[in-house]
């Protein structure tokens, strides 16, 4: 038997916790604004390759769990130096956008930068545990609501993610893109099985019709040719798992070979000739 009073108390506690987080987030934003207006001296220097970012600890540690840990481990109480040159996905460009987010500076999230934003947010641990509406949640929302609604967008993000491995896998960005491509491809293609027939005769008829169908390369198939071969293979497996007809995979493979592998063969031939 459920204690209604207990459920009500739990809900109220949850509401209070959420309200507290929202108030804290608002306070953080006001503090960041105050830092800018008062020209507070910087107290943290972050090095990424040849780029150096002279910033303030508070806006960063309030939203980045990873930087919070590094700052807490630093022996220098005044100015902290952090080198992220060998670690951060997306390099200085990605970190600059993450830092802008921490300071409350507006910038555009689009298909071109969403992959590195999602990966840098994962790396810096910019989750709801540290701030309401943090960058992980914001980027996931953009992916689900906008970017992964089309094959072109999904393939573009997946292609960019290839240069952001292994963090892109950890953030489940690769799997999300592959699932989106497989889902949309099967939805828009007529070469997907709709399930088994109820009777044996219908099954024979369906099989006969399928054998007479000519494989047609869909308009989106060429988009897949930009993908790395192992990622391309995972996309095809996901498509077949969703019911994409196996006989229709052949033309897509042929197109991939013509577009992608031809360049690889030429590159290898040139290297062999130079030996």
Automatic annotation (TrEMBL):
Keywords: Phosphoprotein, Ubl conjugation pathway. Residues 218-275 form the NPH3 domain. SUPFAM superfamilies: POZ domain. The keyword Heme does not apply. Its main location: membrane. GO terms for cellular component: endomembrane system. GO terms for biological process: protein ubiquitination. It is found in: Endomembrane system. Pathway: Protein modification; protein ubiquitination. Residues 42-111 form the BTB domain. It is a peripheral membrane protein. Belongs to the NPH3 family. PANTHER family: OS12G0117600 PROTEIN. This is BTB/POZ domain-containing protein. It comes from Trifolium pratense (Red clover).
């Amino acid at each position: 038997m459920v204690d209604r009073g207990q459920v009500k108390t739990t809900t109220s506690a949850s509401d209070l916790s959420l309200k507290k987080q929202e108030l804290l987030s608002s306070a953080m934003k006001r503090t960041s604004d105050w830092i800018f207006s008062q020209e507070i001296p910087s107290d943290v220097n972050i090095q990424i390759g040849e780029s150096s970012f002279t910033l303030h600890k508070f806006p960063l540690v309030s939203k980045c769990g990873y930087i919070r840990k590094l700052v807490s481990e630093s022996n220098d109480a005044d100015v902290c130096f952090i080198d992220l040159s060998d670690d951060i996905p997306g390099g200085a460009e990605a970190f600059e956008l993450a830092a802008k987010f921490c300071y409350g500076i507006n910038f555009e999230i689009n298909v071109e930068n969403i992959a590195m934003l999602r990966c840098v947010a994962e790396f810096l641990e910019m989750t709801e545990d540290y701030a309401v509406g943090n960058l992980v949640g914001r980027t996931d929302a953009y992916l689900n609501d906008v970017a992964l609604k089309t094959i072109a967008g999904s393939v573009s993000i997946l292609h960019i993610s290839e240069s952001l491995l292994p963090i892109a896998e950890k953030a489940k960005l690769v799997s999300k893109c592959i699932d989106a491509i497989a889902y949309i491809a099967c939805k828009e293609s007529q070469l997907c099985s709709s399930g088994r027939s109820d009777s044996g005769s219908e099954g024979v008829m369906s099989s006969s019709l399928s054998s007479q169908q000519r494989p047609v390369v869909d308009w989106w198939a060429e988009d897949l040719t930009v993908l790395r071969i192992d990622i391309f293979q995972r996309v095809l497996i996901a498509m077949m798992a969703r019911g994409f007809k196996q006989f229709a995979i052949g033309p897509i493979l042929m197109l991939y070979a013509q577009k992608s592998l031809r360049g690889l063969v030429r590159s290898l031939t040139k290297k062999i000739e130079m030996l």
